Amino acid sequence: MNLLTNISPIDGRYKTSVEELSEYFSEMALMRYRLMVEIEYLIALSIEKNINEIEPLTLEQQNKLKSYYKNFSNEDAQSIKKIEETTNHDVKAIEYFLKEKLQNTKFNKYIEFIHFALTSEDINNLAYTLMWNSAIKNIYLPKISEVQEKFIIFAKKNKHQPMLSLTHGQSATPTTVGKEFAVFAHRLQRQILQLSNHKLQGKFGGATGTWGAHNIAYPNIDWINFSKNFISSLNLEPNIITIQIESHDSITESYQIIERINTILIDFTRDIWMYISRGIFGQKKKDNEIGSSAMPHKINPIQFENAEGNLGIANAYFVHLSQKLPISRMQRDLTDSTVLRNQGIPLAHSLLACKNILKGMSRLTINKEKLDEELNNHWEVLAEAIQTVMRKVGYEKPYEKLKELTRGEKVNKQTIYNFINSLEIPEEEKNKLLKLTPHTYIGLSTDVVDLI
């Protein structure tokens, strides 16, 4: 594949960064998962005691059939594509490919039980869901967990480092660097847990979810229970009451969890961008790297900017997938078919963003000097503490007095100390306030970090 001529940057510029997803979302991967469902279904039919036309497949025979999808090759995929040129139907091409494999073998008598009584959607919904489920568990969850762990490490390392807060872009009560990272680690933890525990569903009820063909052929089989057992054997949750398509509600819920994760990460990348812009965070230099073609001094926060952009693209896809897939005209239309093929794209953008955040974090430094300078220039942030103590001791209109002193005014250490000394409050409370500085007024920030 020529990386320079591909239309999508996911398969071009960024291919090497997300190539592990090819195993789950390429055209060849879809063929392999479809073939897996067809073969597993054939095995399940063979061991159904009420089907007398075929014998139960032995363990050796089952393993032989399973080897067709376990050892699925590029040559196999090309063969299926060749068949599809004639059938103009991708799932039927899988069926014909498997039938060709079994012709003139000891499996010959099983051929007409391949895709028996099924509609294409019975294969497709399971294949797409299995692809998604495998990619989430094997690729995405480990990577987003790595991001969260990196936040935790950074938070604990810097839990004692005071930092000026900005609310509405203006100086506010101080926090710590560690506490701010702990917030994002905590938010991610909740979503990661939801994604880890989320159950994906599958259907297997025939052309319109009635098992009509199944029941007319073998009325003595409990097809509803058969389908439940078959879907469960694939580690999916059975969705028994459906139209022709699986409702896509559960996979949509999964998309929406990742969309929320991405939104949290967008919030994070924008905060980091602004911290770097303020000069309180820095970035390690890399030899031979160029920040600007015109301004040699620059070290741009490109990893965080790249991540933000990719997270936005991913969420645009996830929103459309979530809004489109649960909707089908009557019992079936094909709009979901073309849309589902794209589910790997937003996951690739999400994965790419995670990797860029990790790269950015590896270069992130703390500018302690600048952090101290900001705090020393904003003694007005102690106004909250002072007026709260004044309230405690019954001082008249404390908020208003601090408002008059500090609102819109340049306040320094001496201004604050003079005001505190002028207060007629118990010496114990006065001494407590006189010991307070913007660096020490961090509340329980360090304790918050210990909660993650």
UniProtKB/TrEMBL annotation:
Annotated ranges, domain Fumarate lyase N-terminal: 12-309
EC number(s) stated in the UniProt entry for this protein: 4.3.2.2
Keyword Methyltransferase listed: no
InterPro entries, sorted: Fumarase/histidase_N, Fumarate_lyase_CS, Fumarate_lyase_fam, Fumarate_lyase_N, L-Aspartase-like, Pur_lyase, PurB_bact, PurB_C
GO molecular function: (S)-2-(5-amino-1-(5-phospho-D-ribosyl)imidazole-4-carboxamido) succinate lyase (fumarate-forming) activity; N6-(1,2-dicarboxyethyl)AMP AMP-lyase (fumarate-forming) activity
GO BP annotations listed: 'de novo' AMP biosynthetic process; 'de novo' IMP biosynthetic process
Domain Adenylosuccinate lyase PurB C-terminal, chain residue ranges per copy: 328-442
This protein's pathway: Purine metabolism; IMP biosynthesis via de novo pathway; 5-amino-1-(5-phospho-D-ribosyl)imidazole-4-carboxamide from 5-amino-1-(5-phospho-D-ribosyl)imidazole-4-carboxylate: step 2/2; Purine metabolism; AMP biosynthesis via de novo pathway; AMP from IMP: step 2/2
Protein keywords: Lyase, Purine biosynthesis
Reactions that this protein is recorded to catalyse: N(6)-(1,2-dicarboxyethyl)-AMP = fumarate + AMP; (2S)-2-[5-amino-1-(5-phospho-beta-D-ribosyl)imidazole-4-carboxamido]succinate = 5-amino-1-(5-phospho-beta-D-ribosyl)imidazole-4-carboxamide + fumarate
Domain of life per record: Bacteria
Function, in words: Catalyzes two reactions in de novo purine nucleotide biosynthesis. Catalyzes the breakdown of 5-aminoimidazole- (N-succinylocarboxamide) ribotide (SAICAR or 2-[5-amino-1-(5-phospho-beta-D-ribosyl)imidazole-4-carboxamido]succinate) to 5-aminoimidazole-4-carboxamide ribotide (AICAR or 5-amino-1-(5-phospho-beta-D-ribosyl)imidazole-4-carboxamide) and fumarate, and of adenylosuccinate (ADS or N(6)-(1,2-dicarboxyethyl)-AMP) to adenosine monophosphate (AMP) and fumarate.
Family: Belongs to the lyase 1 family. Adenylosuccinate lyase subfamily.
Protein name: Adenylosuccinate lyase
Species of the source: Candidatus Magasanikbacteria bacterium RIFCSPHIGHO2_01_FULL_33_34
